Amino acid sequence: MSRLYIDLTTSVRWRRPPVGIVRLEREFARYCLEHEPGSVFCEVDGGGIYRALSARQVREVLDDAWCKAPTATAPTPVPQASVPATPTRTRMQRCFDWLAWWGPRAVPAAAWPLLQDLGRVLVAHHGAWLRHREARRAAATASAPQAPLAQATATDPAGAARRPDASGAILPTAADLFFSIGLQWHHGAIHAWRLKRKTGVRVIEACFDTIPIDYPEYAGSARQTFAEHFTLIAHTANMVFAISNTSAEDLRGFYERVGVLRQPPIRTVYLATPDVQADAPIAALDDAERGALAQAGTGFALYVSTFETRKNHRLLLQVWKDLYRERGEACPLLVVVGMFGWGVNDLREEMQASEVFTAGHILMLHHVSDALLGHLYRQCALTVFPSFYEGWGLAATESLAYGKLALVSDVPALREATQGLCPTMHPLDFPAWRRQIAAWLDDAPAREAAEARIRASYVPRHWQDFSRELLAAARSLA
User: How confident is the model at residue 93 (pLDDT cuts 50, 70, 90)?
Assistant: First the structure.
């Protein structure tokens, strides 16, 4: 029976409310922890070595409190008596962790966007340097003979090679499965390639979307970084799972354009619908959350998304400016939930300087807890999702899970994810968005009928469905 190895590096390093990819890795790991005895969880250290995490560390990382912690440090493996502890993060990476947490609290709000963009440039250059260093090391050792690993013995059918060595480095076998499904382009897919070359382990990689390659104007990461990443995993992965048929076809198209010598099998495994949060008592929220909820009230439009260029917040700003000119104080409220991304400093300044914002008809919330988000979904009139392109669209499916109508862009993945239950419009069609938003907000009976159709027809997926299907696809490999 093959053993499962799950790379938890992304979850270890993420100390904020989890976004889509982070949530996926955490939920899959939770499923394996509960239902797949013997699974090994690991993280890659600063030297590119995957080291096993203890059961205590895994439970700590997967606990919800991990994403609310006030510091940004990774769990440090307990050192062996004769082996010094290996840092899990380089000094530069730990510096970025610290700045990401304390920056917004330590510098003036007006200066933070500029410092944030500067930080991204430094991160990109540092990441490129690390990838270049690892590529040179890999090339230098590619022709070197590899010492065989210890094989299983008759008295140890699991195989001594499976147990971590004295330093905690994992030693899987060719019969095992290694899942590398987080933000691998940040900490280097080259490490999984090296692990496979050394051990023969079967590697499962992920494709969430190819947006930085196909639509670089909407991406915060360099096109070349993602082209290198997907080319590398073509030579590493025994299987790539895509979160939608749209993403699967986009990846196949990229591989055909660049002419990779080996195209791995690509399987679609649809994402789960985010869990509907229990209707927690408002008293359970903290003071700031209760204040935000009171400010939002009821009957508002809700957009849950990272605040970045691709998500098309500018269209919504123009719609609400027009609604405010027409309706004045009767203008409905737009609540925007999500962390700030890249390339929107000018849009944020424009939004905050607009009359509709200063009049209190646009509310921006960041680092929102699941409990508060649940209240916002229940109290909103509808949700909007005018994104230019998606690999899936978790927030749109989350809206349907709460029984709320979502107005979405007419892009392939969103049509796929929302099961044909939502009105769709071209992301640049301002008149259509203006007309549809006003019509649905004004017509409560029509919204109630749409919500009844959603409750009757929408088929949610759970994380255990996703995890079981991913494991089945991986275990079907020859």
Answer: low
